[in-house]
Specification:
This protein is an alpha/beta fold. It folds into three domains: about 180 residues, Class I glutamine amidotransferase (GATase) domain (Rossmann fold, 3-Layer(aba) Sandwich); about 190 residues, HUPs (Rossmann fold, 3-Layer(aba) Sandwich); about 100 residues, GMP Synthetase, Chain A, domain 3 (2-Layer Sandwich). The protein contains 14 helices and 18 strands. It has a nine-stranded mixed beta sheet, with helices on both faces. Strands 12-11-10-13-14 form a five-stranded parallel beta sheet, with helices on both faces. Strands 15, 16, 17 and 18 form a four-stranded mixed beta sheet that branches. The longest helix is centred in the middle third of the chain and has 22 residues. It binds xanthosine-5'-monophosphate. Xanthosine-5'-monophosphate binds next to loops.
């Protein structure tokens, strides 16, 4: 059994980051909602438990809670921000609204504690709280303070329970990673042997056992996630694997030919290419809402998979390249549904396959890229721009029409060409064009125009859970804007999106 840390999510914005940081220290981690039962926690055999931050006030009746039995499991516990306040309250301490709220980096003084091993005692941490622990029960002792927060960290060393008011998971707490490592190694006694290579070997072995002599149909979009999924499956079951690429008409320009060529040249894989543009576009006629578009596309995908499976004879499994952020953002436990990724939220309940296989379901994007490297997938494919399953459907705001699709595809192509020309593509993690549903007034050759608006979006991100917009030099933006308005029909305005995630998401729908 692999060692594992369970991260219990109280709705904090950094829950995924905490899970990431643990994996970077080579211990597997999973996120469970705060409503998880003790049995479920126990069934994971965790080496340690982390209670995350969250926006509730612990003293409110409807604030998120956890059973006090968790403290009797004899498993080390680390509470962060809300998690720390909850622990102190459950042991009889008091939590109050802070007189001096702290947001941002502040100096902190650390006292002796094993969780601070090898860490400079006079340090800096990131605080982000408007409530604070006022008093602790006698079970705990204070192990860190800041100017405005007397109880910045506490411990009950015998019971191996720790609480931190600050955030060790963010880079703005420079000693945060060392602290997390201490929690894993010194407190939880983890051996830290998890890595993507081990994961791959175990995963291929498990896939072999599970699938046996049966056949699998794998949904291939040509993006990183589904490509890695299909190559993993090929290693596990070889000829029993059939990959299907569905051209729904909302793909990048010339995508179908590109996929055909690159897969033929690099992998000996059974590849089915399905042209289904008309079918998808007719389903999307008169559909304006983002979530409805996503659901309809998801349903149509599944229908085609089922039809193709019947043609191929008995196929028990459908494989997909779903990754962890897809699952989380489609609504895990107490996280709210941000958007139904077509491969998660769009799947109908009465699907005809016996089972869906999602080998990457628990991995983050950069972990998937690491797997791709180990599997010798060509760099060209590994470094491709992430492209959402519903494609330009979620980049054509409102109803999808052929005219808008053409605009967004052409504008995107120009954007790609110019960014690649100045080699900014190495620095930008995702960039693309969007066409709005709104028209605006312009003037061309002394005449009034009333045409579409194209938005350019470019972000830098590590895990696609948070992102910052990229400051593309103005002269490059200028060139892109002028090429789009000159070369793409029915566009008279180009705007640049200067919003981070959060509060925006990367895609517009
Ligand atoms: P958001 O818009 O949620 O996007 O900030 C995060 C990352 O996920 C991609 N994305 C999707 N990928 N199916 C996918 O395979 C989808 O339905 C989907 N929606 C968003 C998005 O492009 C970004 O990389």
């Amino acid at each position: 059994m692999n060692e594992k840390i369970v991260v219990i999510d109280f709705g904090g914005q950094y829950s995924q980051l905490i899970a990431r940081r643990i994996r970077e220290n080579h211990v597997y981690s999973i996120i469970l909602p705060h409503s998880v039962s003790l049995n479920e926690i126990n069934s994971q055999y965790p080496s340690g438990i982390i209670l995350t931050g969250g926006a509730d006030d612990v003293w409110e009746n409807d604030s998120k809670k956890i059973s006090s039995e968790i403290f009797n499991l004899n498993i080390p516990i680390l509470g962060i921000c809300y998690g720390a306040q909850l622990i102190s309250k459950m042991f009889g301490g008091s939590v109050v609204r802070s007189k001096n709220k702290e947001f941002g980096q502040v100096p902190i003084t650390l006292l002796n504690s094993e969780i601070f091993n090898n860490i400079e005692k006079s340090n800096i941490c990131l605080m982000s709280h408007s409530n604070e622990i006022e008093t602790l029960s006698s079970n705990f002792k204070i192990i860190a303070s800041t100017k405005n927060c007397k109880i910045a960290a506490f411990e009950n060393f015998d019971k191996k329970i720790f609480g931190l008011q600050f955030h060790p998971e963010v880079v703005h707490t420079p000693f945060g990673n060392e602290l997390i490592k201490n929690f894993l190694v010194v407190i939880c006694k983890c051996k830290c042997e998890w890595n993507t290579k081990n994961f791959l070997e175990t995963c291929i072995k498990n896939l072999k056992e599970k699938i046996g002599k049966k056949k699998v149909l794998c949904a291939l979009s040509g993006g990183l996630d589904s490509t890695v999924t299909s190559i993993m499956l090929q290693k596990a079951i070889g000829e029993q694997l059939y990959c299907i690429f569905i051209d729904h008409g909302m793909m990048r320009k010339n995508e179908k030919d590109y996929i055909k060529k690159i897969f033929k040249n690099n992998f000996k894989i059974n590849l089915i290419i399905k042209d289904a543009e008309e079918r998808f576009l007719s389903k999307l006629r008169n559909v304006f809402q983002a979530e409805e578009k996503r659901k309809k596309i998801g349903e149509e995908f599944i229908k085609i998979f089922e039809e193709e499976a019947i043609k191929l004879g008995e196929i028990d499994f459908l494989a997909q390249g779903t990754i962890y952020p897809d699952v989380i953002e489609s609504g895990l436990g107490n996280s709210s549904i941000i958007k139904s990724h077509h491969n998660v939220g769009g799947i109908p309940k009465n699907i005809k396959f016996k089972e869906i296989i999602e080998p990457l379901k628990m991995l983050f994007k950069d972990e998937v890229r690491e797997l791709g490297n180990i599997l010798n997938i060509p760099k060209e494919l590994l470094l491709r721009q992430p492209f959402p399953g519903p494609g330009f459907a979620v980049r054509s705001i409102g109803e999808i029409t052929k005219e808008k699709l053409n605009i967004v595809k052409e504008a995107n192509k120009i954007f790609e060409e110019e960014i690649q020309k100045c080699e900014l593509n190495i620095k930008i993690n995702q960039y693309f064009a969007i066409v709005l549903d709104t028209k605006s007034v312009g003037v061309m050759g002394d005449c009034r125009t009333y045409e579409y608006v194209v938005v350019l979006r470019a972000v830098k991100t590590l895990d696609f859970m948070t992102a910052t917009w990229v400051k593309i030099p103005h002269e490059i933006l200028d060139k892109i804007s002028s090429r789009i308005t000159n070369e793409v029909d029915h566009v008279n305005r180009v705007v640049y999106d200067i919003t981070c995630k959060p509060p925006a998401t990367i895609e517009w729908e």
